[in-house]
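Recap slide: p450 domain-containing protein, sequence and predicted structure.
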Amino acid sequence: MNSFITILLFLVPMIILLLTTTRRRRSSSKRLPLPPGSLGLPVIGQSIGSFIAMKYNTAEKWLDQRTQKYGPISKLTLMGKPTVLIYGQAANKFIFTSNTTGILSNQQSKPARMILGDRNLLELVDHDHKRVRDALMLFLKPESLKLYVGKMDGEVREHLDMFWEGKQQVKVLPLMRTLTFDIICSLLCGFERGPRRDEFVEFFPTMLDGVWSIPINLPFTGYNRSLRATARVRKIVRDLIHEKRVQLGKGASPYQDLITCLLSIRNDNNEELITEEEILHNATFVMGAGYETTSSLITFLIRLFANDPAVHASVLQEQEEIAKNKLSGESLTWEDLTKMKYTWRVAMETMRLFPPVFGGCRQALKDIEYERYIIPKGWQIFWVCCKTHMDDSIFPEPTKFDASRFENQASIPPYSFIPFGGGPRICPGIEYARIETLVAIHYLVNRFEWKLCGDDSFSRRPMPEPSNGLLVQITPRKML
């Protein structure tokens, strides 16, 4: 009897504890539902609606309607996957710092993964991410890029001589894509003009068009066209990697371009530290990131200068001061770029208003409790730039252009200005983009004046893109 009472006294608290825990779990699950919203049709969901909003430049309005209806967190289906949209400074911090905690992965949408490759920097985690990022930064860090300012300078001047000089009208965006592509070919790939480069430029834009697409692989879809273009681009780059490897073996400099640099990095056993697949995927990723983002930024700077004579005059004054201290034909230097402080503040304010990257995706590695909701394991998390860039509590009068906002960058709250992302996974190509932009603007404003021809409206693909390519009438200026 005493034994029975002893067992009972032991079991009763255990049963009560078990019941209490179960009740807590049930009540917790009730307190933590899925975010509000609808997933819509399988695979398609809200993808078409979001693409239409981007095309007609109503993406911000589309987001505002969602947030007014559902609040700062909601569920939907984008690019074939169940997705949770979150926004705000705290959301940005959560997105950009959670990769190191095992909560989120940088895994992109299926189209992005299929096109850019599953070994690109966005997909890698932990040691692999650090290994590949460190390798890329050997080439992309400021100390290395200082060596390539003259090479960028030459590409910009050659481009203006070929495509701007002697012309009465030009479409800016296509030409800026040509410029950024030529610099990519020279600095990142290291192959010269010729049939292979022409083939590359033919397929590369088609490849990138599929990154933001519905992953339906049928012959008539843009996704299918993009996959076929991806196969051609990868063959060209893979052949290039093999050629660079042979050149390295014959004593070529490891610092002549990004691919050669990556091939030259060795581990303790004198083996290539970065695999061929990683070089292929990351070269493609860096080329894609640098191709449309910087060309978009320069295009919108030219659009700004045409619409805002005061800003144009201030940028021109800064650039003329630098030009008048250069000998005829002398290239810009790193020191010259450090003097272009106002021009870069103008560029940052332009990116605040017209971020080249609309947003991005992460993937939940486990069930996540966020803002009183559950984000299930495997779901996609979608973040956007514009919701903090246009937040009047962070940037007063957010629709007004004001480059002085960036005079003291320390005053801007962390994770609120995010055109390059943030945290440990901030874009490694920031300095590359800065140099390319400043060199291009220096020669454009010193050599030409322009005015808009007609409409300057724009849409997103998802990069902001002027509807008519930004057609301008140009007249030459005499450089000092």
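The chain has a mean pLDDT of 87.
The domain at 45-476 is CATH 1.10.630.10 (Cytochrome p450).
(End of recap.)
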